[in-house]
Amino acid sequence: ILSLFSGVILGFSLRSYKMSYREVKYFSFPGELLMRMLQMLVLPLIVSSLVTGIAALDSKASGKMGVRAVVYYMSTTIIAVLIGIIIVVIIHPGKGTKENMHREGKIVQVTAADAFLDLIRNMFPPNLVEACFKQFKTNYEKRMFKVNIPSNDTSTVASIISNVSEAMETLTQMKEEIVPVPGSVNGVNALGLVVFSISFGLVIGSMKEQGQALKDFFDSLNEAIMRLVALIMWYAPLGILFLIAGKIVEMEDMGVIGGQLAMYTVTVIIGLLIHAVIVLPLLYFLITRKNPWVFIGGLIQALVTALGTSS
What we know:
Blueprint: H1 2-14, H2 21-27, H3 29-55, H4 59-91, H5 112-123, H6 128-131, E1 134-136, E2 139-150, H7 154-157, E3 170-181, E4 184-186, H8 190-206, H9 212-250, H10 254-288, H11 292-297, H12 300-309
Antiparallel strand pairs: 1-4, 2-3
């Protein structure tokens, strides 16, 4: 938190120097290093922690826990989406900023069915190595198709069949249609890696003594990754300071950008507060009939770490 405020102060202090693009990039280099370090450990941390945790459970406990986790995840996601929609409709965070904004690139229309199927496809990546840096995404392209038209459809082909024999039963015309085709986008397929890690952990846990060697390996791997994360956390304050300061120095017009982002920031914070302070404690109370704030009090250290690392 101290690094965050220090970065804001340093960034505003350096704006008057009008740094060039190259100078800003050099200045932001310590922050870039922090992001690279964290991204470097994301994959091994996800895989090792999930495999270790699932393998340590017995099959019955992990099965029940998995079902509950899926139900909880789906329920809270739906609630969060509804909260977000309601808050956006009430606040209108983008109102009044359209005249100051310009579009870049092209807008691609995606159907709900294709988006859902992409989600399912990404759960089962055909190549685990590729899943570390690429996700499946449906693209769209225009293709021409031949369509047979009945000869008795006079409204469509009357002008065409005027000189054609009446014995001809069908005519053919070319039709353009936008069709889905396989594609990909850069980015970690975290969902596929999570599904594989959970499945792998369940199998290792069911192997008893035969899987003990793999259990020990992933336990050691997880411990090593956690120690690396602890080392990076010592560097995090310095990296955060230069990351925030660099972004502030890089902004061209603080007034315009601040006006465009202020309402979006307020909208996000209000939504997070409603979900974290009202919805989740209420769900905990309804399910367990216990005081949620006592439970949350035991998670203070984890919550502070999550806040500091934005995770």
